[in-house]
Design goal:
The protein is α+β, with helices and mostly antiparallel strands. Helices cover 20% and strands 23% of the residues. The chain has a six-stranded mixed sheet with strand order 3-4-2-1-12-11. It has a six-stranded mixed sheet with strand order 5-6-7-8-10-9.
Length: 323
């Protein structure tokens, strides 16, 4: 859930995507067989010569299992609109955030088409927190997770519970491995601590603890990435990082993507259009070199908002099996 904060007017720095020079050889090593066909967005090839897998991330803003519940009270029309948007995006794997439970996810990802995996973080005990500006409405559980089309083989891995920092309100990461023939693609859905979006908050004495928590979480995600690299498994990290990675010389991006082992920030070259009050992405798709070598050129996109909520926009990218 995005809080209202002023945005520093910082232009995107010049940058080029990290790419493996020997992309063709790498593809031969980790090649991904065709999974799905189907209609795709304009400009994205869809043919036997260019099979692909669409991955996406979307913070669904307090998606609850019951009408009129929680901090974003919804009716059936709202759930239908979100489900329609998912069909338009036509993803194969969706990393989602701010979903109360499986029942809530099923309202927009029907069981006829989707497998669902959600973080196993326990629901916080004690008195529920009242929603700001909504007397009598209370914050419901928020979880990360994945929706995976039923045609796709995958396995569930243990949650990245270290992101919780032993605090009941911090979200865990949901971890899956998509099986592509005899190859694998490891994916992590995250929703990191809100409130430390850029250098403005870094220097705010009132946000020292918030920024320290986010820093710890960034290091935990990087440690997860290091383990995947040690295993030699292609991977992606998707979700609401609550950090403007594309701002020049951002410490969080340098920590997540060190020069010794750089990652690919797919949102770096996109113009943020989801909310006119902001200028930078905090929802990202991050790939290692092996996964980035499979990226369909210019397939990364932000899907504009059609309604007042969710307050985040989906971001998607297509991975191909061909060099």
């Amino acid at each position: 859930m995005r809080l209202e904060e002023a945005v520093i007017d910082v232009a995107h720095p010049d940058r080029s995507r990290y790419r493996k020079a020997a992309g063709a050889a790498l593809l031969a090593l980790i090649g991904v067989p065709l999974l799905l066909g189907g209609c795709r967005a304009p400009g994205v090839p869809d043919s036997p010569e260019a099979p692909h897998l669409r991955i996406a991330t979307w913070n669904l803003e307090h998606l609850n299992d019951t009408n009129a519940a929680g901090c974003v009270p919804r009716d059936q029309t709202d759930y239908d609109a979100i489900a329609d948007r998912i069909r338009e995006i036509n993803p194969d794997v969706v990393a989602f955030q701010e979903v109360e439970n499986t029942a809530a996810a099923l309202r927009v990802f029907p069981a006829t088409h989707w497998h669902l995996e959600m973080s196993t973080r326990p629901e916080p005990s004690g008195a529920a927190r009242e929603c700001w500006g909504l007397p009598g409405q209370y914050l419901e559980h928020q979880a990360t997770g994945f929706a995976i089309r039923k045609e796709i083989a995958y396995r569930r891995n243990e949650d990245l519970d270290s992101l919780g920092r032993r605090a009941p309100t911090l979200r865990w990461g949901t971890d899956i491995t998509v099986t592509l023939g005899d190859r694998q693609l490891r994916l992590l859905s995250v929703h990191l601590k809100s409130g430390c979006w850029s250098a403005e908050q870094d220097s705010d004495a009132n946000r020292v603890e918030t920024c320290a928590t986010l820093r710890d979480q960034i290091f935990e995600v990087r440690a997860w990435a290091d383990r995947r690299e040690d295993e030699g498994v292609a991977f992606g990290i998707l979700g609401d990082f609550n950090r403007r990675f594309a701002v020049s010389d951002d410490w969080a991006w340098r920590a997540l993507s060190p020069e010794s082992s750089p990652l690919d920030l797919l949102t770096a070259d996109l113009e943020f259009q989801c909310d006119p009050n902001y200028e930078e992405f905090i929802d990202h798709i991050v790939l290692d070199a092996a996964a980035a070598a499979l990226l369909v050129p210019e397939s990364t996109r932000e899907w504009p908002r059609h309604d007042d909520h969710p307050d985040h926009c989906a971001v998607s990218a297509d991975l191909t099996t061909r060099p």
